[in-house]
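task queued by scheduler; priority normal; single chain, no ligands, no partner chains; default sampling; output format set to structure tokens
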Amino acid sequence: MVAPASPVQQVSLDEHIEMHGDLPDSRNAATPERVLGQKETAEVVWRVLDRLPFDQRAVVVLREIDGLSYDEIADSLSLPVGTVKSRLARARQQLRSDLGNA
């Protein structure tokens, strides 16, 4: 004898969103063209980052990629916070310039 199938549990859309977050937006789905564009953009950004002097590149990576605070960067590099901020400002200015020309 086969056991009866359990009833399918239904939840409202609002309840699903509350439990799991919003539904994926199909307009932003990863199409091959979109993935290729993101890869090409990432390659350009890394090339431009590689052109920065090491001290500037280090603070950009620690701040923008690793998400460290100014104080954490200063501690990890044994620098004053002001030096971290000025290196980051110069690096961002150079990145804007280089990315504008890329």
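post-processing summary
- The chain is about 70% helix and 0% strand.
- The mean pLDDT is 84.
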